[in-house]
Amino acid sequence: xxxxxxxxxxxxxxxxxxxxxxxxxxxxxxxxxxxxxxxxxxxxxxxxxxxxxxxxxxxxxxxxxxxxxxxxxxxxxxxxxxxxxxxxxxxxxxxxxxxxxxxxxxxxxxxxxxxxxxxxxxxxxxxxxxxxxxxxxxxxxxxxxxxxxxxxxxxxxxxxxxxxxxxxxxxxxxxxxxxxxxxxxxxxxxxxxxxxxxxxxxxxxxxxxxxxxxxxxxxxxxxxxxxxxxxxxxxxxxxxxxxxxxxxxxxxxxxxxxxxxxxxxxxxxxxxxxxxxxxxxxxxxxxxxxxxxxxxxxxxxxxxxxxxxxxxxxxxxxxxxxxxxxxxxxxxxxxxxxxxxxxxxxxxxxxx
Amino acid sequence: xxxxxxxxxxxxxxxxxxxxxxxxxxxxxxxxxxxxxxxxxxxxxxxxxxxxxxxxxxxxxxxxxxxxxxxxxxxxxxxxxxxxxxxxxxxxxxxxxxxxxxxxxxxxxxxxxxxxxxxxxxxxxxxxxxxxxxxxxxxxxxxxxxxxxxxxxxxxxxxxxxxxxxxxxxxxxxxxxxxxxxxxxxxxxxxxxxxxxxxxxxxxxxxxxxxxxxxxxxxxxxxxxxxxxxxxxxxxxxxxxxxxxxxxxxxxxxxxxxxxxxxxxxxxxxxxxxxxxxxxxxxxxxxxxxxxxxxxxxxxxxxxxxxxxxxxxxxxxxxxxxxxxxxxxxxxxxxxxxxxxxxxxxxxxxxxxxxxxxxxxxxxxxxxxxxxxxxxxxxxxxxxxxxxxxxxxxxxxxxxxxxxxxxxxxxxxxxxxxxxxxxxxxxxxxxxxxxxxxxxxxxxxxxxxxxxxxxxxxxxxx
Lengths: 352, 462
Prior knowledge:
Chain A is of the alpha/beta class. Chain A folds into two domains: 3-162 and 329-347, Aspartate/ornithine carbamoyltransferase (Rossmann fold), CATH 3.40.50.1370; 165-323, Rossmann fold. Helix content of chain A is 38%, strand content 15%. In chain A, the strands form three sheets. A five-stranded parallel β-sheet of chain A has the order 9-8-7-10-11. In chain A, helix 2 (84-95) links the parallel strand 3 (73-78) and strand 4. In chain A, helix 3 (116-125) packs across helix 4 (140-147). Residues 4-10 of chain A have low confidence and may be disordered. Chain B is of the alpha/beta class. Chain B has helices spanning 74-83, 102-115, 139-145, 160-172, 196-201, 208-228, 242-253, 264-268, 272-275, 313-325, 340-343, 360-369, 375-382, 384-390, and strands spanning 4-13, 18-27, 30-36, 50-54, 56-61, 86-91, 120-123, 177-179, 192-193, 205-206, 234-236, 258-262, 330-331, 411-421, 440-450, 453-457. In chain B, helix 1 links the parallel strand 5 and strand 6. Classes of the chains: A alpha/beta, B alpha/beta. Chains A and B meet through helix 4 and helix 7 of A and helix 5 of B.
């Protein structure tokens, strides 16, 4: 059984009934892999959000488990250390009754033995039907998708993309700002604050938030915004508007969502910043600085946090913080995406 | 030796600045007659069909022998050159070991001789021992052995002090320093031209300023050296940016002894290709392939990883403008063959370089077809332009590189009305690392004659 929701101007949305196998019902999801957010339309985003709603209902049950992916092998291949994202994918896959294989790979290169292509072929030969992958080199999941027979879910690649994070961020905003029908960020000022240059979270959020109609601002020191003016100027011509500034007060003024990004110590070694202390003083999300935003502005962070650097501890756990919601919603979003991709793969669609 | 008659073709002779309908006759490998057709005889012959031009000269070819024969051998590289219409090539010195002493040159030449190819094989020597940038290579001995210039290509001459000494020392030997202009302090870990596309794809930016700063440094040192050593010469290879070319243009106007080349991939392809677009620079418009719906294949194709990186459309068009106004003296291929193993990896881990000596003519003709370059200027940049830089070091220097009656035939015949599809099978190079694989290119080489012998003969040539 599927529920039909009238999405207004967009075509009617068919939300799957998540208790049964995905291939048994017609759902308007046409992407074979989830590699980036750039190809997702507004309708795709709505479908993911509504499917995640259904997953939230599953998570609220006494036994938070459905048999939808029973017998299916989900392999989680991480070339970079991660706890939060890897565990979130693992919990999501297990909630759908999939068989989960975890592989922590040493950072691969041609000089260190097995190539990525060989690894992916090996994993597939061992039974992987869906591949969740994290890799330190931008674009690596595209190479995996070229050789892997099933669906590839990008769990983060280099500086490039972190699609499930952007979708769980959007879902978290929608759950607080939306009215049930719309995503709820249209015209609202959303600020991404911090190390934008090295952030795959920021890049993926640019696509999803501009597609959803947010008034997006990127703010950080000029050394950590390099290249984004060039993107903003082309994006504006294409109807994907966002603002890039190093003026933190202007960025935060009347903001309705503020997302702080993790700052890493390596940035000092490479001469991009004088010190963490100076960063915290000028760009850290403090109670005082948050005062420029709307009183009810949401505070977000993709984690892991450096409390006292990019975000003050009292802000991180304050009343406006939805950071733990992000973690919970991450499971629902990843369940939704595993479910939707499993349906496409079983149905044999080829649109990537 | 070869006998050949071609009637009613379009002849291009950059040496005398002439092109038009004509006929040639080759007897026993010697170009015995070049006849320009006039009036009614010329009716119906135009530049859109069979073209005869002097054999092309490539100032910048990587052959990989010795050291990496899986990627290319001297023999396969010469075969690829002939397929591309080239009859003279200059091998780069970044082999393993580097070509930093005459023994390595002997090995390269022996391999060329053994291949039986009539293509003229010239070579650059390294500027520094082992190309490490620390001490001068055996410049004098290499000059005596016949190198045509000195280059640490693959890397710049990092030390300004070493470059200064090398320009002076090589200048006295009558040879140029061929520098790869890159300030590596700005390109550590860089993957793609810094700007819009690299930002979207999350690739580490390779700023235009890295080339501009290096060229600025090189020109300042050249100006200094020429005061003491008037024969000092600098050649800047694969200049890829508007800013860099502007510096060269101004230096030439000021009378500095500097020359430069641009590559076909830098004037025809752009950074957009990394995102999955496959349109030429002159068709790129605003250069936003996402908005233009121009993405026709997947992103991060490792065959596009090249040093310097593919730039934005404005830089590519600046390369074409530099060819048109003579700022760029030559088109060089920077043919850089690599194995599948070195390219079938993550974009940022892939070896840099494009296998390009066979596709150079196709990209040149695409630019000509698009009205961005005249046929005559294009042919000059492939023949007389590089010949002027080589001077007497090419065997063709004595008689000139034009269509010279009485000289050994050194020419290429191609059909502009025909096209061919680039594929692993059609490429003679062992390096199949071309982003053009699967694409159709204009201009089918029918025949390449080098020193009066057939170097390449196409399926339809006769």
